[in-house]
Amino acid sequence: MASIKDVAAAAGVSVATVSRVLNDHPSVSDDARTRVQAAVETLGYRPNAVARSLRTHETRTLGLVISDVVNPYFAHLARSVEEEARELGYSVIIGNADERPDLQDHHVRTLLDRRIDGLLVSPTDGGSPLMLNAATNGTPMVFVDRWIAGVDVPVVRADGRAAVHDLVAHLHALGHRRLAIIAGPAATTTGSERVESFRAAMSEYGLPLPDAYIGQGDFQAESGRRATERFLDLAEPPEVVFAADNLMALGALDAIRARGLRIPDDIALAAFDDIPWFVHTDPAITVISQPTAELGRAAVRALVDRVEGRAAASVTLPARLVVRRSCGETGEPGEPSAVRSPAARPSPPQRSMS
Ligand code: HPA
């Protein structure tokens, strides 16, 4: 493989000049720059990133540890993280924790061993000693989407509370009164925030939220299916199921269809997180949509600020309610809903006995 000396010899310049061209230094003549670029091209020269890291003590690499790469929300987030990092001159190594604290630790340890310049984490839990240590021992770190309470690390996230409130107001205006939630794991901040804000909004609207209307899920489709089956088996099933993430909503959809029930006539469905295929289901699903790409980009900017020695603050972006047709809306999709009178509600569907 060609070395920097070979490039210098081929271009008829010094090694220092080649280095200046490679680093985009302005004090190089146009002629020398052109000859160096031609020699780099002809010889297929690639700078040695390892040697550079040893010299500069930086790897121009960020770590991203996400909770579940199969969840379309996190896949979308990872894409925007990689894009923004690339634009700022960094590569990204992704570790998928698969919602497992042990795997999360494995990735954090491996990334630290590789001397990444900074770490973006969407934690699966309240944080192991390894993670908490990394957060406080000077590794530049930023939490994205989820966070660990009490740890002094900037958090980039969306405000789910306001959007959950808007959803409950929307459902109330449509005449729905019996609302159930499939919650995410309480050990995650997104899991607990969504159920707490749902509870607060229900109470504000004077709507009861019995324990039987709170299904415990794990952000995976199967848990959404099981929780929905339990709701449908109740003597008085809910009128609406709100799934606290997109995968649990898919599970809920399966359970509702498996009983031969129709959405929204027999039961309504709403979800946290928009995914492209929620507009292609019949009916299209009413969701709370997060500015996922903006979150990923803002998280990288905050992390690079920390890596490069600048201050970085937490960022909270708004999530918004996107009204479609899965809750009995009659207005134009995307517009505030037309209010359906409770009297127009169809009689409760036939339920199977468990
Ligand atoms: N889990 C699952 N889906 C999500 C989350 C989460 O924490 N945040 C946004 N979508």
TrEMBL record:
InterPro entries to which the protein is assigned, alphabetical: HTH_LacI (IPR000843), LacI/GalR-like_sensor (IPR046335), Lambda_DNA-bd_dom_sf (IPR010982), Peripla_BP_I (IPR028082)
Biased composition (Pro residues): 345-354
Pfam family, one: Peripla_BP_3
Keyword Transcription regulation: yes
Record field: transmembrane: none
GO molecular function, one term: transcription cis-regulatory region binding
UniProt protein name: LacI family transcriptional regulator
Organism: Streptomyces laurentii
Lineage per the UniProt record: Bacteria, Bacillati, Actinomycetota, Actinomycetes, Kitasatosporales
